Amino acid sequence: MSDDEREAKVREIVANVVELDESSLTRTGLLVEEHGADSLDAIEILTHLETTFSVEIDPKAASRMVNIDAILEILDEYGAK
């Protein structure tokens, strides 16, 4: 999967969980402060990421998922394909 495809998939997951239009998400937009995500949303996003990218992510990483860039970094950290 290319970087662009991976980013598109992350955007899709986040938009579905937080119930937003994908076009409203920027790479640096804060999910909690700007889009109203909460800790349960973070866990749901994490679960979808693990399933989609066949990777196991430490649940503590959910607190670092503040925007799309941070999520992409976490995926890199955990060797997501």
Automatic annotation (TrEMBL):
Species for this entry: Streptomyces milbemycinicus
Domain of life: Bacteria
Stretches assigned to the Carrier domain: 1-79
Keywords, in A-Z order: Fatty acid biosynthesis, Fatty acid metabolism, Lipid biosynthesis, Lipid metabolism, Phosphopantetheine, Phosphoprotein
PROSITE patterns given in the database record: CARRIER
Cell division among keywords: no
Protein name as it appears in the record: Acyl carrier protein
InterPro entries noted in UniProt: ACP (IPR003231), ACP-like_sf (IPR036736), PP-bd_ACP (IPR009081)
